Amino acid sequence: MSSLIADLLRQTGGTAVIDGGLATELERHGADLNDPLWSAKCLFSSPHLIRQVHSPSFRFKFVHTLTAPGDYGDAITVETLKRFHRRRVQILADSGADLLAFETVPNKLEAESIDLAGRPDISQQRKEKKVDPVAYAQLLKEEDIKIPAWFSFNSKDGVNVVSGDSLMECGSIAESCNKVVAVGINCTPPRFIHGLIVLLKKVTTKPIVIYPNSGETYDADLKEWVQNTGVTDEDFISYVSKWCELGASLVGGCCRTTPATIRKIYSALSSSQSAILATK
After folding, report:
1. What is the CATH number of domain 3-19+55-108+139-278?
2. Which residues are known binding-site members?
3. 136-149: per-residue pLDDT in tens?
4. What is the pLDDT of residue 215?
5. Extended beta strands in 29-143, E state
6. Which of 6, 65, 102, 234 counts the most CB atoms within 10 A of its CB?
7. Which residues does Zn(2+) bind (predicted)?
């Protein structure tokens, strides 16, 4: 485990609270995110809002490189993804960040390999499918990125990632990369998190990071969240202690969660930790 994550978890008694939905807060402060760059637009159009929505006491300078949810595995190859992200990863790694978070990762990528088996006749080629390591894992190794990273996937059925790929296979890819120091789930309805943690625990020994969304439905045509389709903060918080009992080490929120949600997560975990200490 990276000393960064190890030190953080040691200081917090084994469970740490991370941040909430950046885009949600940016919109609350007046940002118009109806843009192909989404919240990244604010980095150059209104950087003051980026500073404003981050807590002054936030210790670590996490940098998130985002992938858009969706099944693009048949249209985009590993090499295409690596070309797209290579320079971005280099810049972020040199920016002074403590950690790179590859989040909302929608799939694993398959590559078709040709096994000639030493035979010169191309008609005798045998094609077979193999699971190729996620492009990001390859990129971290190829560029010898010195700062740690985590991989966080999202799911819409509580078993697989959004493309339909197995979460356990995706988790295994993260487990096999020594540059990755934590693996988890983000931007996924809270009702699915319990089962997803159970699946991840079967394939990884690394800390598990969990930051679900509010459970609300997003209308892609209207480009807005459908009101009253998610859970209340109280319902969200009711899950948190169980997630940690199952093995989550870092807990926060994603889309439609707010600073109030994060404060309540902190209070719930603080109360739980106090109860544990009181029994010892």
Report:
1. 3.20.20.330
2. 187, 254-255
3. 888 898 999 999 99
4. 94
5. 62-66, 99-105, 109-115, 126-132
6. 102
7. 187, 254-255
